[in-house]
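Sharing a chain and its predicted structure for anyone who wants a worked example. Both blocks are below, sequence first, tokens second.
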Amino acid sequence: MAGRIEARLVEMGIKLPEPTVPLAKYVPFVQTGNLLFVSGQLPLGPDGLVTGQLTSADHAADGVPAPGSKLAQAAEAAGFSAVNLLVQVKAAIGDLDRVARVVKLTGFVNCDGSFAQQHLVINGASALLGEVFGDAGKHSRSAVGSSSLPLGVIVEIEGIFEIA
């Protein structure tokens, strides 16, 4: 039977996919004590990997991504990365209800040097985790621009979770 968090994901219309296999020489997660470190997760959504690079042309003038804009698509992709973080957390600990807190996210945004709204992209992951976990989903965070990311993806996110 699904736990409270998985039931919440179902309510949100999110079905957790199977964990992906690392494409390089690393492990998808490491637990030490009550902290679980999850390697960077790519934005693998229902239509495959979300690729691309943001530029100054993709800025939101008012700080809010316009629906359908490339910036909004990148924020949605960050949400896909967050779902894939949850997939790896579940693979590591078996039950998402054991997550006591989302401690920290580090988000990498594929952009050129003229793009300065990485924080708006990573908000897609932060919002999703906040909706899933409530107060336990509030976390510290870094949002960093990168001139390229693996496989040309638009965003990659890693996370640290406290496990009960």
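Comments welcome. The chain has a mean pLDDT of 96.
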